[in-house]
Amino acid sequence: MEIKTLQYFVRIAKEESITRAANALHITQPTLSRQIKDLETELDVKLFKRSNHKIHLTDEGILLKNRAEELIEMSQKIQEEFKVIDKNIEGNVYIGCGETKGMEVIANIFKEIQIHHPKVHFHIYSGNAEDIASRLDKGLLDFGLLIQPVNLNKYKALDLPTFDHWGVIAKKGDPLSEKNYVTKTDLSKEALICSRQVLETDIEENEFAEWFGHLYKDLNIVSTFNLAYNAGWMVKADMGYVVTLDSIVNTSVESNLKFIPLEPKLIAKHNLVWRKDHTFSKAAQTFLEKAIEACR
């Protein structure tokens, strides 16, 4: 199985047409059809099904497309790294980031490297902790910017000098929105909307759970989320209160939502992490050195 064949397969899946894919790839339709037929024979599965002049992926095809895209991305990353291996510091740095103020530190490091090494390019992948960890484990990212609570056992990590504050998002005019802060007692009987990350049970030090103490196990969590923007819509629909970090959900003057901090204060620290066995390019190694300096 060759990378080029997987690239052909992914293109067909996107175009939903062998004819359009062949035109885009600048090869003949019979050649492309034969490549896919050979791939199906090699894997002993059917990858496509036809309907209404289009072709669609089978369940096996969907699985292969996901794996093929990862392999293609990794192949491109390897080629990019070896193109600059004997040159001055240049190339690409891949970082996964959550929605956090910690991005300010990362951006400042980017700018400093850009001044001295203009041929270094940065690629940001935005996602939650689960998405970022998955891409780190597959080698598709050099670094991840994660927000506590998170399990760091698999990674090397730096503590960034930044943090977010935990609080609650409520509609303006709601009784909770009139408070300067909210306590665990205020929230103990309310309908709550929480990030899936803070509900994970395998985190050794879950400061979120510790803040609620004995009330944690009895919280009325009506919904979970992985993107706080979507959670804001659930508040607007009167589903409950979002327990989240400041500066993520829009609570500007124009918004009808308000952020109220927790009391006692609870902060979420930020960590820059990387795989313990990860091999860095010159560009990624330069970024790490600058990050270590920024965290001293």
Automatic annotation (TrEMBL):
InterPro entries registered for this protein in UniProt: HTH-type_LysR_regulators (IPR050950), LysR_HTH_N (IPR000847), LysR_subst-bd (IPR005119), WH-like_DNA-bd_sf (IPR036388), WH_DNA-bd_sf (IPR036390)
PROSITE patterns: HTH_LYSR
Gene3D superfamilies: 3.40.190.290, Winged helix-like DNA-binding domain superfamily/Winged helix DNA-binding domain
Taxonomy, superkingdom: Bacteria
One GO location term (cellular component): cytosol
Keyword Lipid metabolism: no
Pfam families: HTH_1 (PF00126), LysR_substrate (PF03466)
Keywords from the UniProt entry: DNA-binding, Transcription, Transcription regulation
Domain HTH lysR-type intervals: 1-58
GO molecular function: DNA binding; DNA-binding transcription factor activity
Family statement drawn from the similarity comment of this UniProt entry: Belongs to the LysR transcriptional regulatory family.
Name listed for the protein in its UniProt record: LysR family transcriptional regulator
Organism per entry: Staphylococcus xylosus
